[in-house]
Amino acid sequence: MERPDDPTGDAAALNEAGRQLKSVSNAPARVHLPLLPNGRISIMDRYIFARFWATYLVTLTMFVLIAVVFDVVEKLEDFLSKDIPLSEIVGDYYLNFIPFFAVLFTPLFVFVSVIFFTSRMAFRNELVALLNAGITYRRLLVPYLATAFLITAANIYANHWVLPPANRIRLAFTDAYIGWRQQNPDRHVHMQVAPGQFMYVESFTVSDSTGYRFAYEVFDGYQLTYKLRAERIHWRSDVRKWEIKNFTERHLAPMQETLRFGKDTLIAYVFTPSDLKKDRHAMETLNARELRERIAELRLRGADNVAAYEVEKHRRTSFPFAIPILTLIGVSLSSRKVRGGIGLHVGLGILLAFAYLLFLQFSQTFATSGSLPAVIAVWIPNLLFGLLAVWLLTRSPN
């Protein structure tokens, strides 16, 4: 009786699968076979599909469980001390935390999965059997890429439409119970609140909706027609107006200027405290349509954080394309049988994956600071690592 872990049986089966593919195609050896010969998925395709999905789902489940355990340990004191209902912990937080974590690290999980099961196939001589049977290396990549692009499409959809509402619920729970608070904005907040109308505040405190050293200007073309300066402003939520303290108001007209001083007044400006909050998490809660509208609004106001929103917009599409790129790199690295075995392949693969993530973070930082256009910054890592994947493919066994 053949042992379950005996590689000879799998290699022989795949050798036979390769001969069947070769005979079905009626083509000479080392030709490119179609994905669906005679309208059917080949035995090799089904085999690699199954291995890919099984390894990916196991890897995903394992890492998600580890992340949940560590997160529970970190927040356990808050859960117990604040007597949070279990239904809210599970339903509002963890059911939205799991997809956030899974989608965020999917490229890494796919990369590790590809390296693991491909290294195992190489160690059991299954890849050698396929290549010896006349299957070209490029043809071997078809089921890998088909699966990778399927996961990529799902990730792009999730980034634009599934995760934003989930993040909204998760962050609301964290804000209410765990002690996370929106970050105070940087000093020197200035924006265009309407065409020809500009505001400036030197500092603004989120906790009490109070700003200091405020200025408001109105222009008619290039001509200044109105200016107000105040020592302090405070948002009155009961009347939805701004309370202006110790102000100076100037009306400018041709050949005439009116100056007025005051201690206290209420003015209904078009901006609210939420417009002055530079909340770095706010963009994560906007779906694709809301994000486009928010970027257009920030551009109109001349806000200085437009670049961060543009990076988020392009990142949601570019980052999932790391999945097919890392898949090609993983196959190229692990399809060779080496002395270090699976451990060497997995270690090298994780090192490259983290190098990609680190490079992506650097490029996004440059884009946020305005040194690079957002669309270029988020696609540069894919371009460079795509070239690396092509180079590794040229050095792979044929």
Polypeptide structure, described:
The chain has 398 residues and is of the alpha+beta class. It has 2 domains: 7-179 and 319-394, no CATH class; 189-276, no CATH class. 60% of the residues lie in helices and 16% in strands. Strands 1-2-3-4-5-6 form a 6-stranded antiparallel β-sheet. The longest helix has 42 residues, at 137-178.
Quantity of strands, as a count: 6
Number of spatially distinct domains: 2
User: What does the overall shape look like?
Assistant: elongated
Report the average pLDDT across residues.
85
Strand order of the largest sheet: 1-2-3-4-5-6
Residue ranges: pLDDT <50 for 5 or more in a row? 1-5, 21-39
Largest sheet: 6 strands, antiparallel
Separation of the first and last Cα atoms: 34 Å
Number of helices: 12
What proportion of the residues form beta strands (DSSP E)? 15-25%
SSE map:
Layout: H1 7-25, H2 43-81, H3 86-104, H4 106-123, H5 126-132, H6 137-178, E1 189-194, E2 197-205, E3 210-220, E4 223-236, E5 241-253, E6 256-267, H7 273-276, H8 288-301, H9 306-318, H10 322-334, H11 341-368, H12 374-394
Antiparallel strand pairs: 1-2, 2-3, 3-4, 4-5, 5-6
